[in-house]
Specification:
By secondary structure, the chain is α/β, with parallel strands linked by helices. It is built from twelve helices and nine strands. Bound molecules: N-carbamoyl-L-aspartate. N-carbamoyl-L-aspartate (NCD) binds next to helix 3 and helix 7.
Length: 314
Amino acid sequence: MILLIITVIMLKNRSIISISDLSDEEINEIFSQADKMLENLETGRKMNIMSSKILATLFFEPSTRTRLSFESSMERLGGSVISMADSKTSSASKGETLADTIRIVESYSDIIVIRHPLEGAALLASRFSSKPVINAGDGSGEHPTQTLIDLYTIKKELGEINGKTITIVGDLKYGRTVHSLLSALSRYNVKVNLVSPENLSLPRHVYSEVKGKLDLNTTTDITKYLSDTDILYVTRIQKERFTDKNEYAKLIGSYRISLNDVEKLKSGAIILHPLPRVDEISPEVDNTKTAKYFKQAYYGVPIRMALISMIAGD
Ligand code: NCD
């Protein structure tokens, strides 16, 4: 009990820019708070623990799930939301710097969620804000709250993370969810298979961070590790990060998970995807019991409710 109180206090007013900002104990505490939030959501019990607080969402890049689930989470906690969902209609389009935008928004809110096309933008925002900042994706950098959702889904669906084999497929170079996920997985006793076209392999800095800590295999062949896989984590090729659109055109469709692939997976395996999906999972897979990506998106709400209340609650 004493430990629990200390952990809750530890997250208070803290910015979350990278998954490495959170200790193992803090991640576990977020999961147990998320369990409570989930119970409240499912019993329809009203929560009014953030009624005096305002969450600001600043999205300089497209988003559906992340922005709406942060906003829904704050509303479900009884708090309020102010939102800049389209940077074209904000003063950023007049040339305002991110630092100035943050200086203003921090005076209008109690917690700021930011998504930006530039790696490092969330860190910069946190340096100009006295209010906590949550990174909801900075270019090809990180997406720590997606990783919390990914890990939580594995725990809910498979009971355990330790001992599992995770095969990560797709755009390992530009996929920020992959970068945060790998960093988090390196704390567990897991086997990881990385599957990508050669020119979309992991950035060197991510590879060197995790290579000594994980049992890691690399391949371009999607079929190679399917029978050994407990969690198939599929990602979209990040079109918006390509400077050469011809290069993207060559890579789109590199992998498309079909029913045939699903049959090859280890018994009891699950398929995750941070979404949005383009064509990397065939829609007929949605009706199999392996498909957990919509459930994963749903878990975004209890996880973000837990995080917001632990950071900005009274
Ligand atoms: C991801 C992102 O924005 O990095 N989406 C999300 O937040 N669920 C993945 C993606 O866009 O491919």
